[in-house]
Design goal:
This protein has 264 residues and is mainly β. It has a single domain, classed as YVTN repeat-like/Quinoprotein amine dehydrogenase (Methylamine Dehydrogenase, Chain H, 7 Propeller), CATH 2.130.10. The chain is 7% helix and 50% strand. The chain has 3 helices and 24 strands. It has a 4-stranded antiparallel beta sheet with strand order 1-2-3-4, with no helix packed on it. Strand 5 and strand 6 form a beta hairpin. The longest helix has 10 residues. It is globular, with a radius of gyration of 19 Å.
């Protein structure tokens, strides 16, 4: 089965929208459930994000598209610079470019202030009209990004390293020593939450810390998503939800393997 990238939207409809690596699209909600026409642009999809209520999809060679309506996608490439075709003469040169250039992640404060990043320190900012490449102080591989409600952008790089800044002002706030980067970052209850298969972290100010979580919640690390009121962790061993300061285990795969489907 293809990997599915998904998000919930409010514009143009209140829906759950899923996108596969084959550019297939399906939606559920607002009286519709089914497949839509595939995204009409060819690129390797790497991530999705809801910004300003709309779904944004990013991928290889600095590709960004926005869902305008059902079966209607807009490519946002004004200002994006790619090597001219005659500048890439070999397969190796093509692979080097794709390795160095984004995008693997996207987030925004609004539809007029979006950040996309990936590759080796390849960070861009969209002002609602065109993209501008950001002067970023590292060529580390970038995996995740979060535009925080504190007005800063947080970028997760290789080994769990974290950068913090905005526009052309950035600083490294944490030098990671992990073998995996933070796969996803979200803003929830006044701080950034980050996760990988190794666990869950919080970024509070300039500090990256591991919160004290129940052991059954720690099993659910890997992926993270949130709304204003709810945070959800999901991984190989289960799904956990944080709401009103209380954790619930929605799925416990360890118990399920033993034939006990009760999460209590």
């Amino acid at each position: 089965m293809d990997k599915i990238f998904s998000a919930t939207t409010s514009i143009p409809f209140s829906q759950y929208v899923g996108v596969t690596m084959e550019n297939e699209v399906f939606a559920i909600g607002s009286g519709f459930e089914g497949l839509e026409e595939p995204i009409p642009y060819e690129f390797a999809i790497s991530n999705t994000r809801t910004i300003g209520g709309r779904l944004y999809v990013v991928g290889s060679a600095r590709s960004v598209v926005r869902r305008i309506d059902r079966n209607n996608w807009e490519k946002l490439n004004k200002g994006i610079h790619l090597p001219a075709q005659d500048e890439i003469k070999t397969i190796r040169e093509q692979m080097l470019f794709l390795d160095a250039a984004g995008f693997s992640c996207v987030d925004g404060f609004s539809e007029n202030d979006i950040y996309a990043a990936g590759g080796k320190g390849d960070v861009w900012n969209f002002d609602g009209d065109e993209w501008r490449q950001i002067h970023f102080p590292s060529n580390m591989l970038i995996e995740s990004i979060c535009c925080g409600q504190d007005g800063y952008v947080y970028i997760g790089a290789q080994s769990g390293t974290v950068f913090k800044g905005r526009k052309d002002q950035w600083k490294m706030i944490h030098r990671g020593e992990l073998t995996l980067p933070f796969r996803q970052m979200v803003w929830y209850e006044n701080c950034v939450w980050a996760t990988s298969d190794y666990g869950v972290w919080q970024i509070i100010g300039d500090d990256v810390v591991q919160p004290d979580l129940p052991s059954e919640v720690k099993m659910c690390t890997g992926y993270i998503s949130c709304t204003e009121k709810t945070l959800v962790l999901a991984g190989y061993y289960g799904v956990a939800r944080l709401e009103n300061g209380h954790w619930d285990i929605l799925i416990n795969c360890v118990q399920a393997e033993k034939g006990d489907f009760c999460s209590e």
